[in-house]
Amino acid sequence: MKSNLDYPLVPYEAPSWTSTINKDMIPKYTIKLGTLNTPIQRWRLPDIPDDFEVFVKRDDMTGSVLTGNKVRKLEFLMADCVDKGCQAVIACGGIFSNSCRAAAIAARQMGLDSHLLLWSKETEMPFTGNALLDRLVGSNFYLMPKDCPFQTDVYPRMRQLYAHILKTSGKKAYQIPFGGTNEIGVWGYIACFHELMGQGLFESNYTDIVIAGGSGGSVMGLGIANYLTGSKLKIHGMAACLTNEYFHNEGDKILRAHGLQAEDGSTGVKTADIVHFAEVVGIGYGMNTPEEMECIEKIATKTGIFVDPVYSSKAVYNLIKMMNESPDTLKGKKVLFIHTGGVFDLFSGVFASRMNAKSCSENRVFDWMELTDKVPSSV
Ligand SMILES: *Cc1c(COP(=O)(O)O)cnc(C)c1O
């Protein structure tokens, strides 16, 4: 059981309430990659009804460049990678994927190579945002057509790439699933729920937890933990990427692997029982309406917190809408929002163009090339 450099495998002690999970599915190890016990703060979001209170769990602060929700999943996935004796990783996602960026940086810090399979419209790689960071840590990029499906295209490519890497470098590559979501990655947010309990989750009387969903692993982890602890919080996954149907299928696969649902789905718990999904993808994955962009800007301007364009902005935008238009969708009035990070997607160039298109006065840019007035000797 050897591990690289400063990232030793640490034996993982699962919370006692996970004891009904299939024993083989309880991780033996974790690797400390994140800066955890992230703070919870009152978040005075603009445009919400007075009787609602929103708090934010700052998982955008799990690290500086190795940041966001993916770090929690990688603590378990990379432990599995090392435990299996792999010396490289393969990850897949969109061209500006946070998941790939986190995997690439974690891999490099651990002394492993990274290979990223990315969906792309073009055959050129734009080195901005996350992709720039991937480039700087020396990742290898493989561009695939946009929207090619997982089961029949992406995962076969992963297996081919595995064979190619083994043949050309002699290294075994660990295949990280899309978004880091599978029966192992889901432990990131089971562990996060445990962390929340230590931070007074139950004593604080929150009624709802809201989180953005992409591959669904984060919200599933929270849903599983909420269910196993018998807590009565309502868990909301704001699906910013795929359909509700996808989430229910993937979620149920994890529940079956964990032994919480029968193989034929006839008994046990279902994803639909433990997570409430809302589709918030809007005009498309990774694309924003002017209202969503306005929302990002307004939240940053009013609260100093940055929500990313792809996930958290859509989650918050629709949470605000929900509080105003269909408050009964929420169980109560005290909401804990999990901020999943993703700040580097603000640097893709889209936001810069938006700002550049504005007038100087809107941008609060003042022309002051020459110092003409008398300067007071002191103030
Ligand atoms: C990946 C990601 C999500 C979605 O998390 P999943 O576990 O894939 O559902 C949400 N927000 C950000 C910023 C992400 O990078």
Note down, in words, how this protein is organized.
This protein is α/β, with parallel strands linked by helices and 379 residues long. The protein folds into 2 domains: 227 residues, Rossmann fold; 110 residues, Rossmann fold. Helices cover 35% and strands 16% of the residues. Strand 6, helix 3 and strand 7 form a beta-alpha-beta unit. Helix 1 packs across helix 5 and helix 5 crosses helix 6. The longest helix has 20 residues. The termini are far apart. The model has no long low-confidence stretch (mean pLDDT 95). The protein binds pyridoxal-5'-phosphate. Pyridoxal-5'-phosphate binds next to helix 2, strand 9 and helix 6.
Summarize the SSE layout with pairings.
Layout: E1 10-11, E2 29-30, E3 40-42, E4 53-58, H1 70-83, E5 88-94, H2 98-109, E6 113-120, H3 129-136, E7 140-145, H4 150-169, E8 173-175, H5 187-198, E9 208-213, H6 217-228, E10 234-239, H7 244-257, H8 271-274, E11 276-279, H9 290-303, H10 312-325, E12 334-339, H11 350-356
Parallel strand pairs: 4-12, 5-6, 5-8, 6-7, 9-10, 9-12, 10-11
Antiparallel strand pairs: 1-2, 3-4
Helix pairs in contact: 1-2, 1-5, 2-3, 5-6, 9-10
Bound molecules: pyridoxal-5'-phosphate (PLP).
The site of pyridoxal-5'-phosphate has 21 residues, from helix 2, strand 9 and helix 6.
